[in-house]
Task: inverse folding
């Protein structure tokens, strides 16, 4: 018999400010399950995760955690206040019996010494400290809300490996498609206050979501036609059989109510950029530019010719100087040596990384209009600010809301709305994917693809880079930058490895070998053993067989009469399904490990 879930939420209802946020949402987490929680910005994902963590109480419904089950929660904006050092903050999350050395190990892996003062941490450093705190106890359940936000590529890939090897059950909220695809085995979709669940990972989500929405539209259309037919009967058939058919009249009232109360899928963001006149063919040219801060070279002897229509992505670890290089290329910062020449007729729109251009005390309306009336100019035309707000999923009631009261996703959409309203032929996007939901990311990718001007962007989202850029500029260390044609995956294929972490000043020799494996740094040459080659060849066959077995067992358990007819058969199938899912997860992790090992061996 399958073990009971470690944590369950049943029939969760919650209302904020008169608007229902959750209306019967459910969540079940079993041992070592890998669940991704997806949904639009504002759908209540973070709130549901807080309810699961026991930090928010629902208006109605039940939360049950197995006695003794340990749960750790990573918030979007961790609070390190009240701790003298980062190490003290991490160690405060340990329970009696936890290994205190693991806190130092994780901090070392995440590029922190533990001696840092919490008040002086950057957003990325605070996120790393918070990750170390929740990972250190090795809990039964990890609830992670946007764990990759503000992390660089080496840290994201390290976190993927750490979570893939973890024995903890995972519930993940993330906008990073590749991160979710690798780690999830189950998808829970929070939509219009309710949850839907499939026992498949994120890779299957978008196709499944579209099928569900299409079926809803068909059912709503059928309901509308049925109402028309019933209304026709009511006009012409009710008089002769009034008493006998009052029940049918009542049913018509119910049908009308169902049709009227139907909440369609949440609207989509409408991204349209305001185009300026075309720039010259040459947008910018950097000729052997260099820039240093103190004795540390950030850019050294770098040249780039940026032409109209180019889409260039800048990647590298945190602290490599991506934002500095971006400012050099756009003329915002002067190089120490070399020359940057900007082309003719450049009109630039910028999305900054930290959303610092937003004034926390300014309302949404004034942020978009500049405090000048109720109109905003988009594409050379005047539009009422409320109509433009709706394009980015803001309600009219939010016009007077201060920026400080917005969620991270809402601030991201507001920054996009303001940047895209400005006429431009050069878009400069510094970490544009932070806090955006997947649907908005899809539309941002389409907008970039259709944009007639030039795009410079900094991102740690590998999937987003693959979908948007035509060339990647990579930090090679020591101020050196190289240009590779294609997206992120193309760069990895050409370079032989992904982005590697900056080497910390102080390194613990006990973890040097682990860092080398995680970061892709050169390791002693080796070949695949006979057993590794044999496993690499045969694991895909085993994985396919396990997937077929899981599909068969899932179909068996889905029979609504099986439990009543044959309880023993139901329990046996449930146990077999759990074993098969565990075996599949192990087989996939082993295949992925061996495939990554093969790629490293062949690249040398």
Result:
């Amino acid at each position: 018999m399958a073990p009971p879930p470690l944590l369950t939420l049943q029939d969760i209802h919650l209302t904020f400010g008169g608007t229902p946020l959750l209306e019967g949402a459910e969540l079940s987490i079993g041992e070592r399950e890998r669940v991704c929680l997806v949904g639009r910005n504002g759908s209540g994902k973070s709130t549901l995760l807080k309810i699961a963590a026991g930090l928010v109480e629902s208006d109605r419904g039940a939360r049950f955690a197995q006695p003794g089950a340990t749960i750790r929660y990573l918030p979007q904006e961790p609070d390190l206040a009240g701790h003298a050092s980062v190490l003290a903050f991490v160690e405060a999350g340990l329970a009696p019996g936890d290994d205190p050395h693991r806190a130092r190990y994780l901090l070392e892996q995440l590029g922190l010494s533990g001696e840092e003062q919490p008040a002086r941490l950057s957003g990325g450093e605070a996120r790393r400290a918070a990750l170390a705190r929740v990972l250190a106890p090795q809990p039964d359940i990890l609830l992670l809300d946007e764990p990759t936000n503000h992390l660089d590529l080496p840290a994201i890939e390290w976190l993927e490996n750490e979570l893939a090897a973890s024995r903890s059950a995972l519930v993940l909220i993330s906008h990073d498609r590749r991160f979710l695809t690798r780690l999830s085995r189950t998808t829970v979709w929070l939509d219009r206050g309710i949850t839907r669940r499939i026992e498949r990972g994120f890779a299957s989500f978008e196709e499944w979501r579209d099928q569900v929405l299409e079926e809803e539209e068909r059912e709503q259309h059928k309901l509308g036609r049925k109402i028309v037919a019933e209304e026709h009967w009511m006009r012409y058939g009710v008089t002769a059989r009034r008493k006998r058919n009052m029940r049918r009249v009542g049913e018509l009232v119910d049908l009308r109510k169902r049709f009227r109360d139907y909440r369609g899928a949440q609207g989509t963001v409408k991204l349209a950029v305001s185009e300026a006149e075309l720039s010259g063919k040459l947008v910018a040219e950097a000729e052997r530019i260099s820039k240093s801060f103190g004795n540390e070279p950030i850019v050294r002897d770098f040249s780039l010719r940026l032409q109209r229509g180019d889409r260039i992505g800048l990647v590298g670890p945190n602290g490599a100087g991506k934002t500095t290089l971006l400012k050099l290329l756009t003329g915002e910062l002067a190089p120490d040596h070399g020359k940057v020449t900007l082309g003719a007729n450049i009109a630039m729109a910028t999305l900054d990384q930290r959303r610092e251009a937003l004034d926390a005390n300014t309302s949404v309306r004034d942020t978009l209009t500049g405090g000048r009336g109720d109109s905003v100019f988009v594409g050379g035309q005047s539009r009422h600010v409320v109509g433009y707000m709706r394009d980015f999923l803001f309600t009219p009631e939010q016009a007077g809301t201060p920026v400080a009261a917005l969620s991270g996703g809402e601030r991201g959409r507001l920054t996009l709305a303001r940047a895209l309203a400005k006429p431009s032929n050069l878009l400069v996007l510094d970490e544009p994917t932070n806090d955006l939901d997947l649907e908005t990311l899809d539309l941002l990718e389409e907008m970039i693809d259709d944009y007639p001007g030039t795009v410079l962007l900094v991102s740690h989202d590998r999937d987003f880079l693959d979908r948007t850029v035509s060339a990647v500029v990579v930090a090679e260390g020591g101020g050196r930058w190289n240009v590779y044609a294609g997206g992120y995956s193309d760069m990895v294929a050409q370079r032989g490895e992904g982005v590697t972490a900056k080497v910390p000043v102080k390194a613990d020799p006990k973890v040097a070998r682990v860092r080398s494996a995680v970061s892709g740094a050169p390791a002693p040459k080796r070949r695949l053993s006979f057993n590794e080659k044999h496993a690499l060849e045969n694991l895909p066959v085993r994985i396919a067989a396990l997937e077929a077995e899981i599909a068969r067992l899932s179909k068996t358990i889905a029979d609504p009469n099986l439990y009543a007819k044959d309880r023993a058969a139901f329990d046996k199938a449930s146990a077999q399904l759990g074993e098969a899912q565990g075996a599949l997860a192990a087989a996939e992790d082993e295949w992925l490990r061996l495939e990554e090992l093969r790629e490293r061996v062949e690249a040398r």
